[in-house]
Design brief:
UDP-N-acetylmuramoyl-L-alanine:D-glutamate ligase; alpha/beta; globular; four-stranded mixed beta sheet; single chain; about 350 residues
Length: about 350
Amino acid sequence: MSLPGRQKHGIKSTKLRRPTIATVTLNPSLDITITVHGLTVDGTNRWSNSRIYAGGKGIAVSRAVHEMGGRTVAYGFIGGSPGRQVEILLDEQGVPFAFTPVGHETRTNFIITDSKTLKQTRIDAPGPRISPREFDRFRKKLQQIDPKPVILVVGGSVPPGIRVNVYYDMVIEARGFGLKCCLDSDGQWLEEGIKANPYIAKPNVHEAEGLLKRELPTEEAIVEAALELVEGGVEVAVISRGKDGIIAATKEKIVKAVPPEVKVRSTVGAGDSTVAGLAMSLAYGESLVESCRMAVAMGTAAVLIHGTELCHRDEVERLLPQIQIWEMTAERQVKAFFTGT
């Protein structure tokens, strides 16, 4: 597929003619990434590298969309010195935002990467308590989005003070304003939000297992799970499988997209980059096949980068032709999907 704004001799500015992908991050974060060599529990550790990033699921999606030349704006709550740092980081990257200020500080998360074992440890804060008045100001701002986005991406954790069914209400309200929603969350927030039948739902395998209350040990089981979500009212159900790519389903088609084998440097932000590629491509009118190709290329490009820096456009372009795609119509037997018949 063609990337937004890409020409033979460079990148042209086409954002004003492109649909907007708006994102909501109810619980943004200032992410501090630290690299150590051989993490010692109950002992002294010395870091070799440390960086800070603007974090939170929606913010990461907006960062990835912006990196790929798409048009985006990030909404959510922001507060205190860490919140101001998040705004500065986004401003430096040129990512537009329209946050709602709150009285308590934005949370700070720590991601520790062990360069010896290549394992990552996350230490996440719960986030600031949001008052009813602050949430009402946020809702009014969201209702006044101009220009109206094609897709609104919502998801991630929910800070204290907000109801567990917030994503259900948000999807319903967005639909009333003519907006399509992409839901990417987990646990009780996913369970409640999925009841509103969002346009796109993208759980990973573990999250899908929790949602459907059963294990998904095989590709066939994952396909059946995606089709079950579609039957329940989701238009595009996508289940991500880490290094094995994604399986997507609609009423008409099932698609499996698999990336090439790569060296993983960080898994943080890979799922958010995948969501960004999927939402951006579908908003721009690409087919499900090409949208899945872009999603997997962006997700894979993200794991090549240390910390939470997300995907780089040049890496995405390099990976796009290497993504393997299988597709079938939903009317065919699921088993045929894996036998090639």
